Amino acid sequence: MLAEKRRKLMSPQKASLGLEAFIDETLRLSAKHNYHPTTFVGMRARYGTHAAISRLVVSGDLQSGFKRLCEFGLKEWTIESAILKFPDEFSMEIQECAAFGLGQVKKG
Prior knowledge:
Blueprint: H1 2-10, H2 17-32, H3 38-47, H4 49-57, H5 64-71, H6 79-85, H7 92-107
């Protein structure tokens, strides 16, 4: 089961131009706050935008980048928000993980 999930995450699904532009803007806004998410940037270069987002969101932990963007008032620019803005590009499981993470901010 775990191997099947990993295979799906590693499948080379290409992100849409809209998703790519959204993530580019997220990185630009992050840099304005002197935050440079090097782990995500490296994963994006290695695996592609879609796979990097998927891998991080299903990891089970709220990522430091997510927390930082929320601290900057940029919750709508997180990768979790990207998933919900581009739902046709992600599985229901990944959408649920993203929604869960965003829900944690409201509670915390």
